[in-house]
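Structure Section — protein described below
Tokens — whole-number codes for backbone shape
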Amino acid sequence: MPRYVERGGEQAFAPPFLQSGTRMQGFLLKGDPAALQATVDRYLNAPSGGQTSYRVLTSHVILAYAPIASTRSTRPPGSERGYTPETDVAFWVLVGAGHQDGPVWVLDRLAWFLPYVWVDIPTTMATGREVYG
């Protein structure tokens, strides 16, 4: 992988990360299939200009709650800065990535799409935005 370029005053931890003490709980909720597909189209399919084809595979979503005791960078200089606890709350939507084969849409792989993620620590938010986009 390309080297992560660190600038002075960063508020984000550089990957890779080690998370420990996670106790995740998930709650299965019924969603609106058309609204879920519209969200997938808006955030995954439309920006790719047709290069990707994701489809929602179920009308249910998972509302995940994950308190994490420790998140730390595993490489210097981030590993020398300690760790942070955090709590993540997110909606997980099961999608399939596929392609058209004539009139048939063919599933290539399964994926989880997390359109909304909330965290309780500003460093976690900055890391998610700056490192993962």
